[in-house]
């Protein structure tokens, strides 16, 4: 977008608000002359200035600059008639991730994303192996049994922001990527079972590593779609959650043995059976709840695991970096407060300072 278009839109939005230009300039630490030259298109707004003005006016940056198209590439996992790419609520969440992370990148806060080098013609199994190896360099080779374990490992290893939260019905997951802005994000729904949520996160990770973009192909996002992009993401997700080198050699699988392994990897027994190509009828297999060992009590029951893994899991890495930007006086506290969920800005300031003091 050019300076004049952006400047016009910003000027229009300020004039439509209850504030005058002088008070906006003061609130966002801009010289009044710089603001008016930017509105007239003579000067380029810095992205942090746009972020501050947007926060002040209660708008997204896209709304502020009048941008209609999505500023990132995306892929989705959905079912039924849900069209993730045009869903307003989901777009709003995705834009929040994009704007906060790209703003931090502009400020030089936070580590840059890091992806393994992907050889040409790698098979889905090889891609899954590379992803698994990349994660293990950071967190070891244990099973990432909780949604939070998996999400945190992905944030640490790849620099992808992961937000698990309530999403509109029918949309299981979404991913966004904008390489130039150093933005990679995964959004997954808490409305599905935790085992499905974990699969969705792994599926979206696969899309990001492959650089998939289905914005212009809404037909391929349907779950169970025969589209090669979706089939590949599905195979890779399976290989991430059930790494090839940990799979037992083929032997006579029984429903019992499959249930035991499904519990270990926190996947549906039908998913484990498919992974090891066990010739067992679906009807003979339990659900993950049924596969859960009976002897486990207290905090280790399926019900407790399910409850813990059905809660919102905020984008921790993003929240940490927003807190650092505030503590380093590079940003106001508003971006942190918005994502971390604070209505009271004084509380948000205290929380941001405490968060910034912890290790990333
Ligand atoms: Zn997908």
Task: Give the SSE map.
Layout: H1 3-16, H2 21-27, H3 32-39, H4 47-57, H5 61-65, E1 73-78, H6 88-107, H7 124-139, H8 147-158, E2 161-165, E3 171-178, E4 183-189, H9 194-210, H10 228-241, H11 255-265, H12 269-275, H13 288-291, H14 302-308, H15 316-327, H16 334-340, H17 345-357
Zinc ion binds at residues 75, 77, 203, 207, 230, 233.
Polypeptide structure, described:
By secondary structure, the chain is of the alpha+beta class. Helix 2 packs across helix 3, helix 7 runs parallel beside helix 10 and helix 15 crosses helix 17. The mean pLDDT is 90. The protein starts with a helix and ends with a helix. The protein has helices spanning 3-16, 21-27, 32-39, 47-57, 61-65, 88-107, 124-139, 147-158, 194-210, 228-241, 255-265, 269-275, 288-291, 302-308, 316-327, 334-340, 345-357, and strands at residues 73-78, 161-165, 171-178, 183-189. It is elongated and about 75 Å long. The chain folds into 3 domains: 1-68, lambda repressor-like DNA-binding domains (434 Repressor (Amino-terminal Domain)); 73-241, no CATH class; 247-308, no CATH class. Bound molecules: zinc ion (ZN). Zinc ion (ZN) binds next to strand 1, helix 9 and helix 10. Residues 75, 77, 203, 207, 230, 233 line the site of zinc ion.
The ordered string of helix (H) and strand (E) elements is HHHHHEHHHEEEHHHHHHHHH
CA gyration radius, whole angstroms:
23 Å
Number of folding domains?
3
How many angstroms does the end-to-end distance come to?
A: 34 Å
The neighbouring-strand order within the major sheet is: 1-3-4-2
Task: Tell me the number of strands.
Answer: 4
DSSP summary: helix tally:
17
Hetero compounds: zinc ion
Class from secondary-structure proportions: alpha+beta
């Amino acid at each position: 977008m050019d300076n004049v278009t952006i400047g016009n839109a910003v000027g229009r939005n300020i004039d439509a608000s209850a504030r005058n230009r002088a008070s906006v300039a003061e609130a966002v630490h801009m010289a009044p002359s710089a603001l008016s030259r930017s509105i007239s298109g003579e000067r380029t707004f810095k992205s942090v200035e746009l972020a501050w003005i947007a926060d002040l006016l209660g708008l997204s940056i896209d709304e502020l600059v009048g941008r209609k198209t999505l500023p990132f590439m995306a892929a989705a996992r959905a079912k039924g008639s849900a069209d993730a790419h045009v869903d307003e609520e989901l777009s709003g969440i995705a834009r929040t991730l994009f704007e906060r992370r790209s703003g931090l990148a502009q400020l030089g806060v936070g580590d840059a994303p890091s992806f393994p080098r992907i050889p040409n013609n790698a098979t889905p199994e090889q891609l899954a192996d590379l992803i698994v190896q990349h994660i293990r360099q950071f967190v070891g080779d244990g099973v990432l049994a909780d949604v939070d374990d998996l999400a945190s490992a992905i944030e640490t290893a790849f620099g992808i922001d992961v937000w698990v939260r309530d999403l509109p019905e029918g949309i299981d997951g979404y991913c966004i990527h904008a390489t130039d802005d150093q933005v990679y994000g995964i959004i997954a729904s808490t409305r599905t079972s935790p085992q499905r949520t974990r699969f969705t996160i792994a599926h979206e990770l696969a899309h990001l590593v492959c650089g998939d973009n289905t914005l212009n192909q809404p037909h391929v996002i349907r779950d169970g779609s025969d589209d090669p992009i979706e089939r590949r993401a599905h195979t890779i997700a399976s290989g991430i959650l059930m790494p090839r080198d940990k799979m037992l050699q083929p032997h006579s699988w029984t429903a019992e043995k499959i249930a035991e392994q499904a519990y270990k990897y926190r996947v549906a027994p039908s998913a484990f059976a498919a992974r090891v190509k066990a010739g067992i009828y679906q009807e003979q297999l339990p659900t993950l709840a049924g596969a859960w060992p009976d002897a486990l009590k207290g905090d280790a029951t399926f019900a407790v695991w399910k409850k813990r893994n059905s809660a919102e899991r905020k984008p921790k890495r993003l929240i940490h970096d927003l807190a650092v930007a505030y503590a380093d006086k590079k940003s106001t506290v508003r971006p942190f407060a918005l994502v971390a969920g604070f209505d009271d800005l004084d509380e948000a300031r205290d929380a941001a300072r405490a968060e910034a003091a912890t290790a990333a």
